[in-house]
# Entry
Amino acid sequence: MVKKTEKETTGGTFWRPLGYSLLLAVFVLVMVQMTRAAYLINQVGRDNQRLVQEFKSIKDGVIQYGSDLNEIREYLLLPTKEYALFPPEKEGPAEGQPQSLGAGIDRFVSETGGTYATEKRQKQAAQDLASLLKNNDFKVKLSALKLLPARAIEDQGAISSWKFLQNKEVFAQLLLDKAKAVFTMQSILGSDLLPEGKPLAEVVLSYFEAQKDAIASMKTKIPEQKKAMQALWEDAEIGAVLSEKKCSATVNPVESEAGFEYAVENRDGETLMAIILNRRTGEFMLQDKGYPDTAALKPALMETLKGLSGESETARRIEQKKQELETYLRSPEFQGTLKNSHVELQSPRQEDKRIIYDLLNADDKTKVGSVIFETETGAVIYYRASDGVEIKEDEVLASGSKKNF
# Structure
C-alpha cells in the first residue's frame, strides 16, 4: 500500500469546501428563480382576474346601453334590436375543416339522384311532345273540335311551342318549359298549367273540350270591348274631366296575366287609377268591381275621375311645404320672434316663380331681408338685404349661430 504524500492530502482538503460552496450557490440561485417565477405566475393570474372583471363591467355597460337604446326606440315607435358584444357562433364545422362523412354522402346522393330525376323528366317531356306531333289519332280528335295543329313545333330557346289554329288564326298554343319539364296552354284566357300523370294527348284534348267555347267567346268579346273602351276615352264628358284634372289615359292597354290594363296618369306619368279588362270574363274591373260594358262603366268612371287629384307627388309635397311655411309665419312663436327682433312681416307678393315675404325694420320701415318660397321646387331661401346675399335653408340650419348667419 502506497502512502499519500502531504501535498496530495493538502490539495483534497482545499477543493472539497470549494465544491460545496458552488453547489450551495447554484441551489440558492435556482430557489431565487423559482420564487420569481411563482411570483410572476401569481401576478399574471391576478392581472387576468382583473381583466375578466373589467370586461364584465364593459359587457354590463354595453347591455345597459342597448337596453336604454331600445327604450328610446320603443318611445319613437321603432322596432327594438338585440345588441351583442360578439356575433353568434356559426353552427357546423369550422371553416376549412371537412364535414362529416355522412354529410358528404347525403349531399352527393341527393344531388346525383335529383339531377338524374330532373334530366329524366326533361327527356320524357320532350319525347311526349314529339310523339304528340306524330299522333294521328290525336289530330283526328282535334279536327272534330274544329282545331288544326301546326305542322311543326317551334323552338324558342327555353320554351318549345306548338300552335293550334282555328279559321287560320292562332287559337291556342301548347308550351313546354324545358328546364321545369312542365306544359302550359296559352290562349286569350291566359296561361293554364296542365296536370301531370296522364298521357299528354288526353290532357290536351280534355283542356280543349272544357275551354274551347270560352276561348272562342273571349276571342270575339275582348276585341269588341277594347274598341268600346277606346270610344269611351274619346267621349266628350270623359275628356272634359281628364282635361280638368290635367290627366291622360292610355289608349293602348298593357297586357298581363289578369287581362288588359288601361291607366289614368298625371302630367308626371304617375298612375292615379287603372281599369282592367278581365281576359276570362270580358268585364271591366274598376276598384274591384266588375262592369259588363262601357255603358255601365261610364258613370262609375266619371265619379272616380272627379275624385282624383291630378297633382303629382312632387306638386303635393311642394304645396304641403307652402302650407307649412304659411302656418309657421302666422304662429305665435314666430310673432314673438318678430317682436323681439323689431321686425315686421309684410304680406306676400308674387314674382315669377317665387312668393316673397319681406321683412321690414319696425322703426324706420327699412327692408332688412325676405323669406322666399320657390313654387317650382318648394325650396325656402332667405335674402339678406345688407349685402344682397341669398342663403339656402340648409345653410342657415347648418350655420349653428346667428353670428355665422
